[in-house]
Amino acid sequence: MQVLVIGATGGTGKQAVEQALQRGHYVTAFVRDPARLPIQHVNLTILVGDVLKPETLLPAVRRQDAVFCSLGSRPGQHDQVVAQGTKNLIAAMQQAGVRRLLVVSSLGVGESYSEASLPSKLFIKTILSGVIAEKEIQEKAIRESGLDWVIARPTRLTNGPFTGKYRLGEQLSFSTFALPSISRADVAAFLLNQLTTDDYRHKAVIITGA
What we know:
The radius of gyration is 16 Å and the shape is globular. The protein has helices at 11-22, 54-61, 83-96, 118-125, 129-143, 184-193; strands spanning 2-6, 26-31, 44-48, 66-69, 100-104, 148-154, 156-158, 166-169, 181-183, 203-209. 32% of the residues lie in helices and 23% in strands. Strand 1 (2-6), helix 1 and strand 2 form a beta-alpha-beta unit. The two termini are 29 Å apart. The longest helix has 15 residues, at 129-143. Helix 1 (11-22) packs across helix 6 (184-193) and helix 2 (54-61) crosses helix 3. The strands form two sheets. An eight-stranded mixed β-sheet has the order 3-2-1-4-5-6-10-8, sandwiched between helices. A two-stranded parallel sheet has the order 7-9. The chain is α/β, with parallel strands linked by helices.
């Protein structure tokens, strides 16, 4: 398949690029700084652009079978790259007729906040409050897009190895004082699995390590 990765220089985005190539897909990595993606492969195309500049998105989206979106922001960041960038991406996909959208969101967005453990809730309400607020806008735009989307809401992300073992569900219970985590590699793998199934179409699922 032809897969576009948005946010390809981030931790989960890099995993998506590497794993999609390993699976035999043709990958287009959409980046602002190509120096931050030191991956070379015959099936990899790197396009330079900015999700906040819609005119750079449409050429990247055209002729793709699916889009993997792992846009992220840091606490205190105010450029709306996640919220507005996703809205721009959705508009480009609608114009190009590309329907499948796989998105990395976060535990704490929407109804998943009630599922979080006490330490996670404290972290979400303080340090991550701005990040989560932008993810709320992002998810709302995705739900209203009319696209075939899947949203993964991971717990705390790590750079651990791929395990293929994780807990998954629209609702998950956690130990009261746990601070659960999952590797970026496992999150990327789960979403890439959705390229060939509709099992989680139009669902936002919590995902955490087993």
